[in-house]
Amino acid sequence: ADNGNPYEHEMTAIGSSPGPWSGDSIGVSYHGYAHSHLDALCHRFHEGFMYNGFSEDEVTSEGCGKLGITASEAGVFGRGILIDMPLLKGVDWLELSTPITDEDLVEWEEETGIKIGSGDIVLVRTGRWARRATFGPWNVAAESAGLHASAVQWFKEKDISVIGSDVALDVFPSGVEGY
Q1: What is the C-alpha to C-alpha distance for residues 7 and 91, in angstroms, rounded to an integer?
Q2: pLDDT greater than 90 at residue 2
Q3: pLDDT in tens, 58-106
Q4: In degrees to the nearest 10, what's the CA dihedral of 39, 40, 45, 49?
Q5: Cis ω on the peptide bond leading into residue 86 (within 30° of 0)?
Q6: Could you tell me the pTM of the whole model?
């Protein structure tokens, strides 16, 4: 339910054709909400362009000509910070469509005494999996807690290197007119 087709299966050989065996290929479709994964910057577009003005033409069926995930093939290293919003709010999970604003992030820093800084790897917990364990799966692309657009500037000022979440980062629906 979190990802309608997370595993792809194809029979590559069956029985005596081409030889006395059957063979198959199994692949994983990481996009969706079933698997943790690190997206490359070439996965998002706005008006035909990617981050830093690269054209969407840089992406083909062979991969990303610019901004590919292969830039991180040696790994990503930095100080990891978990922002546990349900813990801050005293709940098991944030209710659906709850925005995490820049004010929430400031409150988190004040309450924890942890200051996010340049190069940090920030993981934001909304409690998605605790909610799923209680109520079952739902369409997280239509309705989920997450970061409000106001948080973008806050993270930019902190100069973090990576951000992740237990859901798709931004709140759905966004609450921003037109999006």
Answers
A1: 34
A2: no
A3: 998 888 888 888 888 898 899 999 999 999 999 999 999 999 999 999 9
A4: 170
A5: no
A6: 0.81
